[in-house]
Write a structure and sequence with these properties.
Helix content is about 0%, strand content about 40%. The strands form two sheets. Strands 2, 3, 6, 7, 8, 9, 11, 14 and 16 form a nine-stranded antiparallel β-sheet that branches. The chain has a seven-stranded mixed β-sheet with strand order 1-13-12-15-10-4-5, with no helix packed on it. It has one domain. With about 240 residues, it is mainly beta.
Length: about 240
């Protein structure tokens, strides 16, 4: 699978979702994936309820798991299909002891969503570095986007913080080259799309926004094969949504 080389096809981002405030998207050249769970407040100040894509990762057999679900789509804004295959200690990936995968197929077959719940760096396929507690997405060979989806449990104003980071390139292998997106109800939020290591973009892309949602609305964190090649396209995703 591509995680064995773990990388990412160019796509258009579609229209921008309106009704957002305080939005910022930016690329940078460094940083680790991280869980991004610290220092993020809710949209209204004071006590908050937060949902973290890494901390809330669904255990075996549970997808969706609470407000989070993991799956794929053939292109942005099209039908979202849940991953159905869960595995730990993937037999077809060296260096994946303890790593939890939700994937299109078993053994681990891209596209995938995966988490390192251990206390040490992991190097699945010997092509990437996934830090302790970090979550990542990897696109598929036929242009499939890998997606972590949040479904709003109640209406209101929520803050969104997300950082996408290229994590491929371990031991001299190819760097991550992906297109990344934060979408509300199938449309890119304003300033909510970018690239990793493509067209002068750096190794990370950060996004911050406040949005109004109604119960059942979705916010997707999506990763595609930015340059048309899905190999070595593992992308760390630190995402947190607070109210």
């Amino acid at each position: 699978m591509g995680i064995l080389l773990l990388l990412g096809g160019c796509s258009s981002s579609g229209g921008a979702k309106s009704g957002s405030e305080g939005i910022a998207g930016s690329n940078s050249s460094g940083g680790s994936a991280g869980s991004g769970s610290g220092g993020i407040g809710g949209a209204g100040g004071g006590p908050t309820t937060c949902y973290d894509v890494a901390n809330d990762f669904a255990p075996a057999g549970v997808n969706p798991g609470g407000v989070w679900s993991y799956g794929w789509s053939s292109s942005l804004g099209t039908v979202f299909t849940l991953y159905t295959d869960f595995s730990v200690n993937a037999t077809n990936l060296t260096g994946s002891v303890g790593i939890a995968f939700w994937c299109l197929g078993t053994p681990v077959t891209d596209p995938c969503a995966f988490l390192n719940p251990t206390s040490a760096d992991a190097h699945p396929g010997n092509t990437l570095t996934l830090g302790p507690g970090d979550f990542a997405l990897h696109p598929g060979p036929n242009g499939q986007y890998s997606i972590a989806r949040w479904t709003a449990p109640s209406s209101g104003r929520y803050s969104i913080e997300a950082t996408f980071t290229g994590i491929s390139g371990y031991a001299g292998t190819a760097l991550t080259t992906t297109d990344v997106h934060v979408e509300q109800d199938g449309l890119d939020l304003s300033a909510g799309s970018g690239y990793i290591n493509i067209g002068g973009a750096g190794n990370s892309f950060a996004f911050s926004s406040t949005v109004d949602v109604v119960a059942g609305d979705t916010v997707d964190f999506a990763v595609g094969r930015g340059n048309g090649n899905y190999n070595s396209d593992s992308t760390g995703v630190a995402a947190r949504i607070c109210k």
